[in-house]
């Protein structure tokens, strides 16, 4: 009889290995997942980042100086773990700083935001050219059955941005807005659902501006996605407040499959700073959008991005942001210190804020944000929610997320991974929400 165990061991030893590390937004995670699936389809074994690997793929972010620094540290770590392996640095930071990255020890390939999808071709080529940056910015889809351990699948529907926010480098890194055709998006969604995912998160740089060359609208896409029989839950990633229309909210309300969780970037709660940032809304317009969401979804979880220490931001202007976040039913914040980015208008402004001041403002908002999130989670006690379970933790409790994106812990002997179950939310203690299966 053939020894299958021995053969399997030999095959595993012969398989090439690949490790991944992703920085930044959900869109980056979606794109990494798509590329990871390509490696798996070509016979690679995925190993943890930091382990010895034939190929290490780092998908980068360049929103802040901190992201750039983290990327450089990851390159050093990857080279230390796999000095003989190939290191591929791809994405937004690679697009903007390719020559600098290419000079780092151990880096074999530097691929821009479009070229990273051609990584397999470049790995096969026997050439000395290591930098590949394409300025044309085609649309490359990213839907994948390899979602880095998540039970939610990310579906990329849009890329690039036509906005000219004075602080933002992303339009330089990813180009102008472009979007997938609805028919193609539906086909990708069906693949995800057929592979077992129950929840899809739509991702992009600016998905509220979704419109492709055929003139198809975001509302049309969402209607068709919600009509898919196998889809149980649909979420959106970050959506600009000026793109939240009454029509869009009506589509959201039309189906229980749409989750009552939103991420609406704020950046500042002061009109003068918003104008200097070239944002497309005022404080009053932002308030109106949030209030419309709460009217449609009274128990919605709402996140917001905030930048502290934008050039010229006074203490009173910072307090305006704090007070707005206090006033509105925002449940959690992503807070960033302003970071000067090359080629942006804000980088050339006067009156840049000192680092200690920015750091203090970030700390203040982070502490306040933690308190607001805890209050929101505690308010869920007594509610009943559908929870999608992700994993069993070291304490033996199952972890999952409610429809409005609150993490909940449940004690159960059942196998709950990737299951959606009805949960009674029973207790909040030590900053954690607990529940019981019904």
Number of strands: 20
Judged by helices, strands and strand pairing, the structural class is alpha/beta
**Mind telling me the CATH superfamily name of the domain at 4-132?**
Response regulator
Low-confidence stretches: 1-12
Percentage of residues in strands: 15-25%
Please tell me what the overall shape is.
globular
Distance between the termini: 49 Å
CATH architecture of the domain at 4-132: 3-Layer(aba) Sandwich
Largest sheet strand order? 2-1-3-4-5-6
- Please count the helical segments: 14
What is the CATH top level name of the domain at 4-132? Alpha Beta
> What is the residue-averaged pLDDT?
92
> What is the CATH topology of the domain at 4-132?
Rossmann fold
Helical residues, percent: 25-40%
Gyration radius from CA atoms, angstroms: 22 Å
Summarize the main sheet.
Answer: 6 strands, parallel
State the gist of this model:
35% of the residues lie in helices and 22% in strands.
Description:
The longest helix has 25 residues, at 355-379. Among the domains are: 4-132, Response regulator (Rossmann fold, 3-Layer(aba) Sandwich); 139-259, Transcription Regulator spoIIAA (2-Layer Sandwich), CATH 3.30.750; 384-437, Nucleic acid-binding proteins (OB fold (Dihydrolipoamide Acetyltransferase, E2P), Beta Barrel), CATH 2.40.50.140. The chain has 14 helices and 20 strands. The protein has 438 residues and is of the alpha/beta class. The strands form five sheets. The protein has a six-stranded parallel β-sheet, sandwiched between helices. The protein has a five-stranded mixed beta barrel with strand order 16-17-18-20-19. The chain is globular. Strand 11, helix 9 (218-226) and strand 12 form a beta-alpha-beta unit.
């Amino acid at each position: 009889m053939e020894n299958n165990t021995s053969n399997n061991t030999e095959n595993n030893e012969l398989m090439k290995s690949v490790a991944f590390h992703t920085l930044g937004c959900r869109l980056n995670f979606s794109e990494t997942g798509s590329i990871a699936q390509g490696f798996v389809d070509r016979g690679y074994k995925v190993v943890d980042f930091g382990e010895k690997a034939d190929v290490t793929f780092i998908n980068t972010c360049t929103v802040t100086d901190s992201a750039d620094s983290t990327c450089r540290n990851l390159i050093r770590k990857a080279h230390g773990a796999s000095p003989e392996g190939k290191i591929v640095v791809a994405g937004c930071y690679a697009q903007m700083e390719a020559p600098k990255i290419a000079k780092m020890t151990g880096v074999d390939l530097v691929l821009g935001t479009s070229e990273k999808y051609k990584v397999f071709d470049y790995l096969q080529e026997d050439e000395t050219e290591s930098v590949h940056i394409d300025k044309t910015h085609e649309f490359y889809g990213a839907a994948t059955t390899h979602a880095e351990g998540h039970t939610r699948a990310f579906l990329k529907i849009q890329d690039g941005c036509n906005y000219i926010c004075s602080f933002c480098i992303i339009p330089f890194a990813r180009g102008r807005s472009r979007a997938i055709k609805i028919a193609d998006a539906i086909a990708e969604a069906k693949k995800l659902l057929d592979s077992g995912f129950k929840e899809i998160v739509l991702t992009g740089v600016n998905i509220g501006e979704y419109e492709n060359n055929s003139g198809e609208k975001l509302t049309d896409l969402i209607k068709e996605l919600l009509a898919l029989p196998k889809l149980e839950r649909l979420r959106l990633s970050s959506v600009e407040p000026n793109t939240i229309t009454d029509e869009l909210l009506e589509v959201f309300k039309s189906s229980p499959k749409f989750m009552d969780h939103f991420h609406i970037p704020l950046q500042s709660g002061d009109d003068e700073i918003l104008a200097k940032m070239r944002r497309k809304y005022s404080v009053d317009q932002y308030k109106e959008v949030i209030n419309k969401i709460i009217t449609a979804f009274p128990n919605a979880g709402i996140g917001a991005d905030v930048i502290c220490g934008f050039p010229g931001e006074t203490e009173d202007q910072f307090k305006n942001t704090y007070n707005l976040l206090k006033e509105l039913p925002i449940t959690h914040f992503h807070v960033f210190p302003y970071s000067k980015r090359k080629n942006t208008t804000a980088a050339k402004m006067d009156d840049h804020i000192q680092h200690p001041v920015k750091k203090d403002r970030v700390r203040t908002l982070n502490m306040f944000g933690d308190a607001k999130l805890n209050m929101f989670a505690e308010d869920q006690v007594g509610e009943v929610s559908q929870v999608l379970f992700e994993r069993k933790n070291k304490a033996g409790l199952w972890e999952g997320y409610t429809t409005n994106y609150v993490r909940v812990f449940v004690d159960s002997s059942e196998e709950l991974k990737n299951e959606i179950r009805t949960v009674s939310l029973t207790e909040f203690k030590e900053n954690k929400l607990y529940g019981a299966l019904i």
